[in-house]
Amino acid sequence: RRVLEAATLANLSGHFSWVGSDSWGAKMAPVQGLEEAAHGAITILPKRASVPGFDEYFTSRSLENNRRNLWFHEFWEDDFNCRLPHGEPHGEPHGGPGTPIRKCTGRERIGRDSPYEQEGKVQFVIDAVLAMAHGLHSLLREACPGGGLCAGMDPPDGRRLLTHIRRVAFNGSAGTPVTFNENGDAPGRYDIFQFQGSNGSGAYRAVGQWVQGLRLRV
Questions:
Q1: Mean pLDDT, the chain, whole residue set
Q2: Residue 85: which residues within 8 A CB-CB, separation 6 or more?
Q3: Cα(154)–Cα(149) distance, rounded to whole angstroms?
Q4: What's the DSSP call for residue 52?
Q5: Rounded CA gap, 2 and 8, in Å?
């Protein structure tokens, strides 16, 4: 965003061709108010899909049934812009410094009393945990062929575990294949966008994808 601001201040909008990583992706925050400078930017996002069942699970979480999560209280205060009893402040209120903070009742509900949309990287977090679980299970069968735990898994050998993780192959939480190459990288699957903006407004247009090769829609 600061680079776009600098280009605007130098009156160089349209002079540069921008290429953004997935940290830019299709976010509006980096280009808000800088639409003309960002016009034509090419950005990417990992291909992702909504995980079935996750919304129902997450929106059912509450202070009563999710006490094992040490950070849930902090999320609760931020999501509902309220303060739990005996809670420590976690940043400024949504309205800015000096804005009165109401007390949380504990009866708030995610998606009912606050906006909710499944975070785009949920799929990858779940698949990473599943890959670790598959790798551990494979290592356990190799190290302890008699079943159960044995001395060979106390503790597990990290290098052997990494080898087993790189060998996993399964359908992930969103139904897409999870595999790794010899370098430990997952296959790249990306959507490619171009930002088109002017006169204080703009939008990202899908112009292609990368799935085992580049495909452009031009």
A1: 89
A2: 103, 104
A3: 8
A4: T
A5: 10
Per-residue pLDDT tens over the stretch 141-161: 999 998 888 998 999 999 999
Which pairs with CB-CB distance under 8 Å and at least 24 residues apart come from 132-139? 132/165, 134/164, 134/165, 134/168, 134/170, 135/161, 135/162, 135/164, 135/165, 135/167, 135/168, 136/161, 136/164, 138/164, 138/167, 138/168, 139/164
Q: Is 210 helix (H, G, I), strand (E, B) or coil?
A: strand
- Reported as a single tens digit per residue, the pLDDT across 36-80 is 999 999 999 998 888 989 999 999 999 999 999 999 999 999 999
The answer to whether 83 touches 77, Cβ cutoff 8 Å, is: yes
Lookup: tokens for 178:
């999870």
Pairing of strands 201-211, 189-198: antiparallel
Q: For 6, phi and psi rounded to 5 degrees? A: -65, -40
Residue for token pair 């925050």: 29
Euclidean distance between CA atoms 7 and 14, whole angstroms: 9
Tell me the C-alpha distance between 35 and 78, whole Å.
29
Residue 134 to residue 179: CA distance in whole angstroms? 11
Q: How far apart are CA 120 and CA 49, in angstroms?
A: 7
The three-class DSSP label of residue 212 is coil
